[in-house]
Amino acid sequence: MEVYTTENEQVDAVRRFFAENGKALAIGVVVGIAALGGWHYWQTHENTALTEASASYQQASTALTSNKADGVANLEKFAQTNSNSYGVFAALQLADHFVEAKDFVNAEKQLTQASQLTKDENLLSLVNYRLARVQLQQNKLDDALKTLDNVKGDGWMAMQQEVRGDVLLAKGDTKGARDAYSKGLDSKPSQTLQTLLRMKLNNLSS
């Protein structure tokens, strides 16, 4: 609005402003309230959906660990229909199940699916770390190396380099394997992993 010098002019200006813009303001207020209500509804809906997903995951997970006949099928269905962290957990559990059964093809399928369900960097690193190990088991060495590039974060360095060394050794690259194992040791891993990496380095020298 313009600047007015007298109180009456200011009052008249306000009246004209609301006369000209009152409808638009009213619509804006209504839209704002609706948007706020929609936001609260969305939050409530999301929380309810996650609570239901958690309960469904627990049920499907228990069916698998209890070796029920439809345990695998039910957990697979859950993983396919839940694009959230619970879907990732389901796919990871299925992958472990298939690895134990030496079914690396289906394990890779589950882990690939899990990698598409999360943007959480730490969870994604876990998925890709396991995927690379499964690809190594299938002798998909170049795929495994590409997958390992997606295992990020200082906490994953030693584990990532250990698998990288295994893959490079399988490719016949002894020097590359030695460098990878050494990098793993330099990242100050756990005592157990230190022992494993040193053992692998010693085996390269023998």
UniProtKB/TrEMBL annotation:
- UniProt-listed InterPro entries: SecYEG/CpoB_TPR (IPR018704), TPR-like_helical_dom_sf (IPR011990), YfgM (IPR026039)
Give the molecular function GO annotations. Answer: protein-containing complex binding
Keywords on this record?
Cell membrane, Chaperone, Membrane, Transmembrane, Transmembrane helix
Q: How does it sit in the membrane?
A: Single-pass type II membrane protein
Transmembrane regions listed in the UniProt entry: 24-42
Please tell me whether the keyword Lyase is annotated for this protein: no
Q: Could you confirm whether the keyword Chaperone appears in this record?
A: yes
User: Where is this protein found?
Assistant: Cell membrane
What's a GO cellular component annotated to this UniProt protein? plasma membrane
**Chain ranges of the Ancillary SecYEG translocon subunit/Cell division coordinator CpoB TPR domain:** 15-205
Which family is it part of? Belongs to the YfgM family.
User: What protein am I looking at?
Assistant: Ancillary SecYEG translocon subunit
What organism is this sequence from?
Rouxiella badensis
